[in-house]
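Notes, Module 5: Reading structure tokens.

Key idea: the token line is not a picture. It is a compressed description, and you learn to read it the same way you learned to read a sequence, by spotting repeated patterns. We will look at two proteins. The first is printed below with its tokens.
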Amino acid sequence: MTEIMCPAGMRDYEKMTERLAAENADILLSKAVVSGAASNYFTDAVLNDKFIHMYYSEGRRRIVTVTEPLNLRRQLPCEEYSLQGQGTPVSLFQIDLDNSRIDCGMSYLIRLRDGSIFMIDGGYFTHLQGERLFDLMKSVSYGGRVHIAGWFFSHAHQDHFGCFLDFISAHSHDIDIDGLYYNFPSLSLPEAASWKSSDNSSIREFFYDIDLYLPFVPRHILHTGDSFSLPGVRFEVLFTHEDIYPERIGSFNDTSTVLSVSIGDQRIIFLGDIQTDSCRKLEAMYGKDLSADIVQVSHHGFNGATSETYELISPSTALWPTPDYGFEGNRNRTVNRRLLSMECVKEHIVAGYEGTVRLDFPYTHGNYVKLG
């Protein structure tokens, strides 16, 4: 259940946290991210058999309270994410997809310091895409059994998780997977009736398949402010569809969960397919605190994100999960023209031109490795 108080102020948030304490709630987390740009405050608590995640956005003057059954909440991992010490280099792979059937899709693989894998989306149902992904996983795992520390899904579009469904149907017994990470909107929302029938059926298929093939794998339902860490990498959730409420969800792409990935002192922001409405909320929540070294260009460069979002992120590297013809066909869109002209951006890595590439961290622009 998600509840919104808007407009709200800091005193309202303090009263709500005081009420939790008065009710003898177990406070698991109390975190303030204070800056001159925009401050955000977070509280996690357990009260009776409920898990409560509450946060106040100063920039948007609103409090969001998410309540869910305690037995459905899974502890997020918290492992050492320093790049110091022994281990493999942390690497990010932008995966070139087969776009013969569809002009979009997104797939990123992070090899963690212990050699395990963290996946972001995966691409469409394209024939043999799952086999190609499995081959890549085996190659980056140095020949050992594939260990997937986590698989994150930005949103429930087929070009982002279709490959995953094919992959687990073929290889669920060939891999070890520690957790799934996502936050999809409920099909019971009134606006769900206006979504594409394929979107609704895809969400149902996703849950059917993970029940069938990965019944014992923990499922982490992410909320804004959640953070977790795996060897060499720290993750932070910046935005979910819960930040849209009480407004109706206009574009399904705006249900994208925005993920910040920190590797050492470098930061990557994965925007998924986020579009204008959600970008405006993201900008209000974080302002210049969105600053990052690398950005994943939203919605394959079609019509996602805003110029203001990219300017706040101010990246030196832009990753384009799009085929070559998609890049050329959309490069003159207003937002793309602005992104392509930003002086801070030193390189644009387009999947359709460069093929699959590897970025080793710490990363210096221009030093990516083409894998074909």
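Here is the second protein, with the sequence above and the tokens below, as before.
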Amino acid sequence: MLRRRDAEIQHGSNPWPLYIVLLVSLYGCRPDEPNTRFEAYLRRTGSTQSVAPADELKAPPLVGDLQLHIPLVTLDTLDLVRLSGCSVQATLGKRYSSLGRQAKPSQRLLLELEYLRRAPSCTDLLRKDHTKLASALEAAWRNRQQQLPALIFNATLASDEYRSFWLPTSAPGDYPPVSQALVVSALTQINQHICRWLHGDYQAQNRDFEVLLSQVAGGDAGALLQAFFLRSRGPGTVDPAIGRLHTMLTRIGILEERLSPVLPLQYLQWMDAHNGQMPAADPAHHREHIAYSHPPCSIK
């Protein structure tokens, strides 16, 4: 599939803190907290109705520049043979194959989730007669568990699909556009899956996850942001579609918060730049987002 051409767009000089970061504690994996940060935001913004001043709109970083290096811990060939009878043997075989080593980030994530699901039962089975091998499997399991946030970042925020979501124009043969409702649903479901994975539930439907990523790629956040940016250079008016953009970016902000410990500097710099280019919405619209809350890590 062809990749979109990089638009020659630039970034703003007066970053405007994006409200979605302030809303993160209302969603997902943690208990509800008082809305003090949100209310402080409303007091600061008041009735602001225009886009923060900006000279340029900055393009998202290239995927290759964002991907985190994640070392692969391997087992000896003999150890793989000794795993006969364990389902994890097939998982490791796929991971260590030439195709597995070249797998795209989402496929590697799914393989590592498969390992996290299958390895514990195999470790218990081997512990009596193959203590050293059982210890190696357990060490590899802990290693993958620690790498999980970075694996998720590579497969989502640093992926081709999420970059496509941010680009203002599409090239022939790129991801087909989808409706806003479908994009919001895909972003929400991905966040909920990630919440489960980070809390020890490693179940995953591979095809479903890839479909969700493709639906995110068909989103038009970049086109909307570009339109708002261009409109801000003329007479200031509030576009009703601003709520559409904020709804999608709220979900992005939740994921950024969950993965904040592993976000690389280049992503943080770009995130700060595009947050500063976000148009302000009516504070009454912000309050509508408070009603959006699913049970922790639920899948709907």
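Summary for the second protein:
- DSSP finds 15 helices and no strands in the chain.
- Residues 131-155 form the longest helix (25 residues).
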